[in-house]
Design brief:
Layout (H helix, E strand, L loop, with lengths): L1 H35 L4 E7 L1 E10 L2 E8 L4 E4 L13 H15 L23 H30 L1 E2 L6 E4 L4 H5 L6 E5 L2 E2 L3 H9 L6 E7 L2 E7 L2 E6 L2 E5 L2 E3 L8 E4 L4 H4 L7 E5 L2 E2 L3 H10 L5 E7 L2 E7 L2 E2 L5 E2 L2 E3 L6 E2 L3 H27 L13 H15 L1 H18 L8 H15 L7 H35 L12
Parallel strand pairs: 1-3
Antiparallel strand pairs: 1-4, 2-3, 5-22, 6-13, 7-8, 7-9, 9-10, 11-12, 14-21, 15-16, 15-17, 17-18, 19-20
Helix pairs in contact: 1-3, 1-9, 1-10, 3-8, 3-10, 3-11, 9-10
Amino acid sequence: MESILSTAFYYVLIPLIILGIAINIHEFGHFIVAKLFGMRVEAYSFFGLGPRIWGFKRGHTDYRISAIPLGAYVKLYGDEATAPLEGGNSEKDVETFLDERNIGKAEPGKGAASHVVPNSELYELRPRWQKFLVMLGGPFMNLVLAFSIPFATAIIQGIPAVPAPVIASVRADGAAAKAGLQVGDRIINFNGVENPTWRNISVEAGINPNRTLPLTVERNGQKVPLEITPRKEEVFAGQSAGMLDAEPDLGVLPVLVGDVSPNTPAAEIGLQSGDRIVSVNGEKVKSIQQSKSLVEAGKGAPIALVIERNGNYLSLSTSVRKLDDGTERLGFGFKRPDLPLESASVAVAASFAVDSNWENLKATGTVLGQVFAGKRSVKDSGIGGPVGIFQQSAEATRLMGFEGFFLILTAISLSLGVFNLLPIPMLDGGQIVVLGIDKVMSWFGRTLSMVAKERIQLTGLAVILLLMVFVFFLDFSRIASKFGSSADKPAVEQPK
């Protein structure tokens, strides 16, 4: 029962909370800008599109939950192009709006009904620049949230120290060893990036698995050109990344156990997530890479582990064996080490927030560019839909707690803000394009009709639905391939 509740918490509740925050901060952006301009908000659906199934009314606004679980929306009075979102009768809506607008223009005392919405509150009668800002409000709030999370984290707890790109350990027979990297090498150029940080190197390697990349190292005062092919490995919630199989000098950091797979040697000897590995086969460990190398070297013989748990030291012994998936390993991974934190001023925190978001955008853009150039399959691009988002949200929170929760929330909010600026009908970018077309038509004494705007919205809805079907297919095919794959894994897994 406890296992079922835990699974429901991580794989249902947490993803719903993350998506709910990201989507509603977007809709709140539209809502608050419209309110600031004095526009009447007819409906605010916190969850879903289509017909209203529950809600309450405050003032002129109906706050609701809708039937189709595909996001949320804000309905401004007079913006009848959004009628498809709430399942309205479009022709009747347009007629009703036009009739009310005509009555609304009636002079006081000459037939104007008391219930008619004043022209000053109608979205359709507002200047285009105000409509533009209303459309921009949603993506803007998503970008603000994506900026605020790393900014607040940096102010509160500091910024992780970035290790110098100096090689401290190299995994035997790994990508770095095959490339000729040696302990003490300083990487001064990686895939065209001059004087990269270790984070730059990790990101470039991560988005280029199984691709040969140029690098230059400084060794004994000489510049040595090399080439490396990052090893492809599944690292997180079905996502793959390129691994260098080398680590920089992080100083002395605790080596902590991460995931422990069931029915494996690690699980059978009682190894637990959070255990600190003190030594392997009598040799004191100082880094994750060293621990992995010692375990790999001990294949075929008993492996003696000394661990520290809650202040107590335990001696454990086991052996690597072939598991049900065909791999030979102990069956545990490592937790990502926590780097030392450096205090940050407001300016430094702001720079850190901008840089981290920009780095994520560049990495995403690079991957998409590889897809369009035919250098990477769509299935292997990391592009996913709701299933993938739920899985990633759950895994990140389960493995990293609040840190994982906020990392995924930042990534989703950033993606949502940028995606909604694309010129696709029904998205904010598409609405902005429609405003531009309407402006150009006004130069010739013409304008887009309500019916034309609504048809554009319906076209956009069809595009979005097709996209949803496509990403659902990617999600399920990725899951299917995971269960059907028996790719080799190392005796111990990479840090998650």
